[in-house]
Amino acid sequence: MTRGLTIALLLGLLVVPCANAARDAAPVRADIEVRIDPETRELTGRGAWTVPPGESLAISLDDRFDVLRLKVDGRPPSAVTQRDGRRQWRLARSDAATRRVEIEWRGRLDPLEADLDHRQVLRHVGPVTAPRGTFLPGAAQWHPVFVGRPLQYTLRVDIPQSQRAIVAGDLASDSNTDGRRLQTYRFEQPDPAIDLMAGPYRVTERKFTGADNRKITLRALLHEDVADLGASYLDATERYLRLYERWIGPYPYGSFSIVSSPTPTGFGMPTLTYLGIDVLRLPFIRDTSLGHEVLHNWWGNGVYPDYATGNWSEGLTTFMADHAYREQAGPAVARELRLAWLRDLAALDAGQDQPLREFTSRTHGSDQVVGYHKAAMLFVMLRDTIGDETFDQGLRRFWSEHRGSIASWEDLRTAFERASQRDLAGFFAQWLNRAGAPNLRLESAQAVRDADQWRVDFTLGQDRPAYQLRVPVAVDAGSGQQVHWVDFDRERATFGLRSAQPPRSITLDPDARLLRRLAPGEAPPILRSAMLDPTTVTVLTGAEEAGAALARRVVEHPLQLRSPEAPLPAAPLLLVGLERDVNRYLARHGLPLRPAELSATPDRPTAWVWTATRTTGETVTIVSARDAAALAALGRPLPHYGRQSWLVFAGGTATARGTWPSRPQSVRLDR
Ligand SMILES: [Zn+2]
User: Fold this and answer.
1) DSSP output for 419-437
2) What is the mean pLDDT of residues 116-125?
3) Which residues of 219-246 are buried (b: 16+ CB within 10 A; e: fewer)?
4) Rounded to 5 degrees, what are φ and ψ at 523?
5) Which residues contact 464 (CB under 8 A, 6 or more apart)?
6) 389 Cα to the center of ligand 1, angstroms
7) pLDDT value of residue 15
8) Are 264 and 120 in contact (CB under 8 A)?
9) pTM flag (> 0.90)
């Protein structure tokens, strides 16, 4: 199993890190049969693994299973060890011979609980089953795993006839006998373990002719409730396949499937994506997240990131999916997305803003900001530096040279260096190895009459040690903005730009094309600051029990509670309570009351959430509700709205929301 989805980002869904260490080792070949009974939750399996000669290795299996038979070349193996609830058998080194390992096992799976919310799903990594759905993640070791070795497999699944199973790979056969269904899958691309899903699916299927004339099978395996969405999901899949085959190269697999899950999951694996039923109903999943997952078959599941030296695949996928779709919708739409990323970055506390190279997979919101958005900005800046066409040549070169193997940030750099004939070592080093981001300032500017023309002199500043930057500045001379790029690699420098018309203003990075920490005025406060900043102090005032429960769901760190009677803390503040008590607290401390934007809503509001910046610079986040029930109703939705500055709720539904406007750094030029 690999990455979490864009929806995971938007909805805060389940993401499981990928066990990738084994990719480059010689694979074992597995021939496995497994029988699953969702009613009784019994699983029985047997298989034969062919292990190439070489070093010693371990076989591991979750200890919920009884091992009925284990033979290595016909003999019982050496000692069993126990580790983290898993049994391990050690196999001694064998330089000469290929070994054959036979195992039979049986055990009981966990019951599937469909009413879990996303954080509960995140904690449960065991294999689960029910007639409504079965999910056996490879990481749960429901089948014997050869530690450190990937596997190529043939897997036969025996399930009730009303069900269908799916794993990564191509469906080789599908037949029914005596009320049971037998399905055989084959997958030749070495994978660390098998993720298996099953359910009472209705299948929509079609063939797609790939760029290299291969027939690719597209399937939607959906629960009855959402089966009518199958055709539109396959239409969208075709569009994405065409886009990325043209952009990168032929789709590397023989099939792609969209599979529904009764729990609110969001998973991407090679050749398929596994999405919650309710998630599939959201229109933006088809328009954005699905494309992101399709693209992961190239980046992440086609070329694998080198987790030891950093995961580039989320950033590149976010750039070529989420950001690319916004660019297709128009430059202003793409700018909004980049600004949102930069606002998220500004909401991080300095300690959380890690170097990009240290990102491996997402476990916290702050990892998402670094691993997805900072990395996507790196690709925005790289393309601005070397040009669109050269950038695309570099991508195609990277794909053709590394397809099916592990690649690092250095491999990416090399591909772009060859395509552009430029040394990009400095560029990659500063964006990958440095924590944080440049603090860029437009310190001063003036218009100067220069013969029959005008000149704009302006000074840029940044903190030490200076980044090497190409900085866009826009001069407005009445006939629209004209963007100029200047090279800036010191702590301070003055530049001059010519203008035929009398200039009116100059603006720093107006389209948010640079990865940088927005200045306080540029970055309006958003809910995410309170969610992520560990220094946030929480004050509860009125309905304290419901308030504390809500605060615990929203804040990613242990709560730092303070009494409402205590003085105002010199730290970011999260204030949660009932309307009357909240207003009293705000008035007593001279904090701004509820802004007008939040009152202009026709529905019957039950709660208001907003952010503000104190005159001393700290952020205040306020949750004000009519009663305890209204506070409790925010528990599910509120964690998903980290990007917003304010919201109005009627029960659990957000009826209005918004972000306070950002003000770019701009200087009016007096004439
Ligand atoms: Zn992703």
Assistant:
1) HHTS--HHHHHHHHH-SS-
2) 62
3) bbbbbeebbebbeebbebbbebbebbbe
4) -110, 95
5) 491
6) 24
7) 37
8) no
9) no
Q: What is the dihedral of CA 158, 161, 167, 168, to 10 degrees?
A: 120
Q: Residue length, the chain?
A: 671
All residues at 6 or more sequence positions from 211 whose CB lies less than 8 Å from its CB, including other chains? 245, 246, 249, 250, 251
- Output the CA 195–ligand 1 centroid distance in Å: 17
Q: Residue 326 contacts by C-beta under 8 Å, 6 or more apart in sequence?
A: 333, 334, 336, 337
The angle at the Cα of 665, spanning 383 to 480, to the nearest 5 degrees, equals 70
3-class state of residue 527 by DSSP = helix
Q: Which amino acid is at 227?
A: A
Strand 180-191 with 573-578, pairing? unpaired
585 CA to centre of ligand 1 in angstroms: 42
Exposure string over 580-602, b if 16+ CB within 10 A, otherwise e:
ebbbebbeeeebeebeebbeeee
pLDDT tens-digit series, residues 429-445: 999 999 889 999 999 99
Question: From ligand 1's centre to the CA of 541, what distance in Å?
Answer: 40
Least confident of 83-92, 119-128, 402-411: 119-128
Cis peptide before 465 (omega within 30 of 0): yes
Closest CA to 146 of 50, 64, 73: 50
Nearest Cα neighbor of 282 from 15, 13, 550 is: 13
Output phi, psi for 299, to 5 deg.
Answer: -100, 105
Answer whether residue 9 shows pLDDT above 50.
Answer: no
Dihedral pair phi/psi, residue 253, rounded to 5°: -120, 175
Q: Give the mean pLDDT of 219-241.
A: 97
How many whole angstroms separate alpha carbon 35 and alpha carbon 277? 25
Q: How many other C-beta atoms can be found within 10 angstroms of the C-beta atom of residue 380? A: 20
CA 330 to chain centre: 23
Structure tokens at 439: 């603090």
The mean predicted confidence, pLDDT, of the chain is 89
- CA 2 to ligand 1 centroid distance, Å: 9
Sheet containing strand 255-261, strands side by side = 202-209, 215-222, 255-261, 272-276, 266-269
Query: Which pLDDT value is given to residue 14?
Result: 35
The Å distance, Cα 13 to ligand 1 centre, comes to 12
- Going by C-alpha positions, the residue among 467, 414, 415 that lies closest to residue 438 is 467
Q: Are strands 561-562 and 537-541 parallel, antiparallel or unpaired?
A: parallel
Contact 46, 103 (CB under 8 A): yes
What's the CA-to-centroid distance between 3 and ligand 1, angstroms? 5
CA–centroid distance, residue 302 to ligand 1 (Å):
13
Residue 197's CB is within 10 A of a number of other CB atoms, namely 24
